[in-house]
Write a structure and sequence with these properties.
Two copies of one chain form a homodimer. Chain A has helices at residues 3-10, 25-35, 55-72, 75-90, 101-107, 112-136, 156-162, 191-194, and strands at 17-18, 48-54, 93-100, 140-141, 168-179, 195-197. In chain A, strands 1, 2, 3, 4 and 5 form a five-stranded antiparallel sheet that branches. The model of chain A has no long low-confidence stretch (mean pLDDT 93). In chain A, α2 (25-35) crosses α6 (112-136), α3 runs antiparallel to α4 and α3 runs antiparallel to α7 (156-162). The first copy, chain A, is of the alpha+beta class. In chain A, 44% of the residues are buried. Chain A has eight helices and six strands, in the order αβαβααβααβαβαβ. Helices cover 48% and strands 17% of the residues of chain A. At the A-B interface, α1, α2, β2, α6 and α8 of A face α1, α2, β2, α6 and α8 of B.
Amino acid sequence: MSQFKELLTKRRSHYAIGANTDVTASDVAAALKEVISTVPSAFNSQGVRVVVVSGENNQKLWDLIKGVQTQVLDEGTLNYMTPIMDGAREAVGTILFFEDRDAVEAGIPGNPERRSVYKNHESANAQLTAWLALTELGLGANLQHFNIGYEQGFDRAIRELLDLPEAWELVAEMPFGSIEAPAAEKEVIAAEEQVILK
Amino acid sequence: MSQFKELLTKRRSHYAIGANTDVTASDVAAALKEVISTVPSAFNSQGVRVVVVSGENNQKLWDLIKGVQTQVLDEGTLNYMTPIMDGAREAVGTILFFEDRDAVEAGIPGNPERRSVYKNHESANAQLTAWLALTELGLGANLQHFNIGYEQGFDRAIRELLDLPEAWELVAEMPFGSIEAPAAEKEVIAAEEQVILK
């Protein structure tokens, strides 16, 4: 199996993550700088902006997210999500994925619906690329979508906390750290149902 | 540089593609079967369905797409896209990316807006994974989004041509084949603008 396919297979959602590793947030940022420009984007619009948050900022980030989620989630979901949020707070750091709306506006022609699809595709590609880069570093990570809602200002507090441009729309959060427990078993449907030759 | 990073760097949009290769559509389908179940999806909803089309079906597919596009594109865009569509027709084949709306409905809780975002993220992740798998096979590919519009029935003719389920929504088309010309130069913004450490 090639290294690429091995990475794909090893890339799983790790919710039990910690800080028991020598790999730093700075190492992660360096790895991302190597790969993020390879992420495909419609019309080469390059709207992805990635922020690696660690230390006190990472703790403030998750305090902020948890504060909001405590008010909006139902009890069952909150009970499920609390250890994930607490784990993220104490892990090595978090990759925040933004799309620069100015770059998207300037770079992608066409109607707003298509622009939104392309923007989401680029962000997802950046998320997967980053996740594989973390896997290559031996780290675990999971992917969350708290505070989606640029239009409604839901992500404003995070931009303000980190002093980020107004035009950056938050798409996803990827806390990362040492792998403290194996990933859960994953049920997959048969390859023959997902891939068809015609 | 690791094999993974090399693949990321080699993965480019190749518009000049042909059939001068021993790699078959069947080889491509086999490679996709190895990787497609590794693609992350929200709540493990696994809505991605991939169809590898080759030979006469591939020619019919691109005749169909070109027939529609000739009616809807402005002259400049049509002139630009015509060689890409003609090239796709004569290449080894095309990977069609669908999302099974039944799987998405059943697998992703929450409101329709969030479901749509997650669905697009999964499809984009499948597209990038497939593109890297093609790169690993030494093939070139490009990515198109003709006939987006399941709601409006724009993708119905393609489902009918290939006898695919009603619930499968077409998201993207990736024609692939031998690399007949190098990829164009690509301008990238500075890594420091895309990746920030906080």
